Please model this.
Amino acid sequence: MVTITDIAEALGITPSTVSRALAGSPRVKEDTRVAVLRKAEEMGYQRNIMAANLRKRRSDIVGIVVPRIHRQFFANVISGAESILNEAGYNVMICQTMEKLDVEIKVLRTLRNHQVAGVLLSHAIEARDSKHLAALGNIPLVQYDRVFFDYPGAKVVGANCEGAFKATKHLIESGYRKIGTIAGFMTSQAYVERLAGYRLAIESAGIPFNPDIVYENAIVRETGREAALKALEAGCDALYCCGDFCALGAVEALQEKGVRIPEDFGIVGTANEFFTSLMTPALTSLGQNPYEMGREAARAFLEGRTDTTVIPMELQIRSSSIRNTICQK
Amino acid sequence: MVTITDIAEALGITPSTVSRALAGSPRVKEDTRVAVLRKAEEMGYQRNIMAANLRKRRSDIVGIVVPRIHRQFFANVISGAESILNEAGYNVMICQTMEKLDVEIKVLRTLRNHQVAGVLLSHAIEARDSKHLAALGNIPLVQYDRVFFDYPGAKVVGANCEGAFKATKHLIESGYRKIGTIAGFMTSQAYVERLAGYRLAIESAGIPFNPDIVYENAIVRETGREAALKALEAGCDALYCCGDFCALGAVEALQEKGVRIPEDFGIVGTANEFFTSLMTPALTSLGQNPYEMGREAARAFLEGRTDTTVIPMELQIRSSSIRNTICQK
DNA sequence: GGAATTTGTGCAAACGTTTGTATATTTGTC
DNA sequence: GACAAATATACAAACGTTTGCACAAATTCC
Model:
């Protein structure tokens, strides 16, 4: 392994000069700079990043923490963040928490031990408060998607309330009458806001808000099924779902009961996962623009921001929510 | 930031002893070990991994290189590898190449600069040979899924030939007569073998192999569409597809042409991506068991193996390939 | 042409660990 | 109780960079 000292010796200069030359410091003469660069190339020099990081007391790695990597949403957040961070000379270290608090704690500790330059985090469902985030010490943290508003620092979130409002309003305008919601976990602000948006839309339409047809703590396929069956029993004819997987479960459960979608029952999901367009009927979904969210989170880190950025959400209307009536407006 | 020197001073001993105590060396007395551990806890000590890595001349990071993170297949490989590596005390650094050779080269250089303990790689489609892998120097490399057999070191691959054989045989047994294949890129061994398996099945059934109905260089949705239209024109009544996305494109193109699947035309994909079960008709797919592949690749790295491991592939039979005839055998 | 300034390079100390070797202490043996 | 052996700790040198400071040489200024 060739080091800057080797280069220095080969050139009869000191490692400091080599270091500065490689870093492009204006303090070295042009001639020696090109000499160093050529020699480095010739000797096959590879910079030892760990040594540099140790000396500089910080690394060029940014940690990205996601609940689960295989969810399209998070995979796209990662891609977005990576596109910005790589450009700025950073590398990313991706960590999955599997929605578990203890894994999240372990992961944050690891990132801290690596002295990463920053962390972009979307917390696990199991994490009910921001206490454990303090483990990061003074490493800059950007929260995205699922955020704790009581914890200081930059945040990037979807326009959840506004989005859920649009989604629910769309169901109302499609002519559905008793619209429930699969609401997710109230431990996460994102879901709280979606519920708020749903409620706002309902009440704006002059319909009284009915807590009995709000199905909390459902988010995956199986719990979506269960919630849908309850909703059916309660006389609902539509559901706004806080996720696509629970929406998928809902669709399946209803179809098994012989309920026709969208004729008898309307469904809207959230996230606009790839599979939603392939379902029968294709699922209307509130898209979150994860790629942009990742880019924005990365920018927030780079610029050292501490504010909150809101990423618009767009309703992708498909078959599962369009009744025979023509969509008004 | 508290260091082992701080702990040593607080305890009136030397950093070396603290280091050994923390590492669980048998050379330190039980008493001092617990004293060190308690003090470390009390002072909120966090090990500086970069310093340790520098001294040990290797890092605790294993690089995982994937073409695209958002593909279920690779996301699951990552999860599998992570499960084994974390257990063994390693952390993973995930890199996407976006199927581009220059990005792959850049990524490998970065991993090398980080002195990672090892690399698990599935090369980009654009990478046509193994030349650029030498950039890793003496860092152990495990190739998985897409591998270069001419490059030394451990490899973990799916039973592509055998799998494609099963998939094609299934189409034959379902009663399809003229079976083509969307074959992918012949620059990648995985696709070469799938084609070989297809051919073997065809010929074993006494059907002459017909290169005219082998559609190469198709792998994504759009190219799958194009290939399917050509196959239709050529009089095919079935296609074995080397991927699920090109299979999806094929299904869509055929359906638009009014071709009924599976009645008029049979389709089998490869990878068993999540969405295949949600399509109409549900897509029969040759599943690759990516989670196991990731685990195996990680084990190959840990054990320093240099052999080739083959992961069985299982055919998930769904509607897209079952004609009215009963499946023989 | 001497003083002041600029420019380029060298020196050496850090960054926080790990680890081979040396030393001090304890234990065991006869 | 002297000596060997085992045990536990200390010493000090690395690992490969970066960077503040010092210093020499070259340039500028009056």
Notes: Chain A touches chain B at residues 46-51, 53-54, 59, 61, 69-70, 72, 75-76, 78-79, 82, 91-96, 109-110, 112-115, 137, 248, 274-275, 278-280 (CB under 8 Å). The radius of gyration of chain A is 25 Å. Chain A has a mean pLDDT of 94. The domain at 4-47 of chain A is CATH 1.10.260.40 (434 Repressor (Amino-terminal Domain)).
